[in-house]
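Translate structure to sequence.
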């Protein structure tokens, strides 16, 4: 998924990632594929991860380049693409790289950052570097579409540190295995707006033995007007701001999402 907040500890959980309940049921794929269809391609997907959005984009007939810093997640994406027809595979290009500094020889009609990789950029300098790199790679009038948390002030104040939260519902895995995931907040830097998370993946095998994978990462909370200032500094105009992938308007639910549809100025 991303760069500065998480090392490639995805190596331990990459194959489990898409089976996590909240991820498997996430209603964003149609939203991003529709944006790709509207743009007509080519599309740059920053933080493409396992290909959860990238593969459906390629299936929709759109040329898409996926950028990600995690070799493990890109490997999962390659496996997914290998199971697709030749024409779908031909429309997808995968690149391992840093979302803050990359250079391609082509320009794109649309750039996307689905499912919050932008929040793994922990400083405004890193955030601006990412936005500047995207801006350079967009055609005149090209769009950037991405989503981040709308930070919940209630949760930021009340979430206890170091306490393991209730487990998510069990999720079935291939081979008769079962996944249960728990999370906890390790620390929160209120001045830097950075929260350290730990996600615990417990896998139970058919014979009853279990294995545990722990994924630690940091995420930066970016508020609405802060994000808008970053976008303006980087040369983007906000066209739409949504609270949900059904295009419900910002403020219609709390905390909801921050889903930005922007245009390269």
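Result:
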């Amino acid at each position: 998924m991303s760069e500065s907040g998480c090392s490639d500890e995805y190596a331990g959980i990459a194959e489990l990632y898409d089976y996590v309940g909240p991820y498997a049921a996430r209603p964003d794929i149609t939203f991003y594929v529709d944006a790709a269809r509207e743009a007509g391609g080519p599309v740059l997907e920053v933080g493409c991860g396992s290909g959860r959005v990238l593969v459906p984009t390629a299936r929709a007939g759109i040329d898409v380049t996926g950028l990600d810093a995690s070799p493990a997640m890109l490997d999962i994406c390659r496996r997914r693409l290998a199971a697709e027809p030749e024409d779908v595979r031909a429309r997808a290009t995968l690149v391992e790289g840093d979302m803050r500094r990359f250079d391609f020889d082509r320009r794109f009609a649309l750039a996307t950052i689905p499912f919050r990789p932008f929040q793994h950029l922990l400083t405004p300098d890193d955030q601006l570097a990412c936005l500047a790199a995207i801006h350079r790679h967009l055609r005149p009038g090209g769009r950037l579409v991405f989503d981040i948390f709308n930070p919940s002030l209630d949760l930021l104040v009340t979430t206890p540190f170091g306490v393991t939260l209730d487990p998510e519902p069990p999720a079935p895995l291939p081979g008769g295995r079962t996944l249960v995931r728990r999370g906890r907040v390790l620390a929160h830097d209120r001045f830097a707006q950075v929260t350290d998370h730990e996600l615990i993946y417990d896998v139970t095998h058919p014979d009853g033995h279990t294995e545990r994978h722990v994924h630690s990462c940091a995420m930066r909370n970016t508020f609405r007007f802060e994000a808008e200032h970053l976008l303006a500094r980087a040369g983007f105009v906000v066209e739409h701001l949504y609270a949900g992938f059904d295009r419900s308007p910002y403020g219609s639910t709390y905390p909801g999402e921050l889903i930005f549809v922007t245009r390269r100025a």
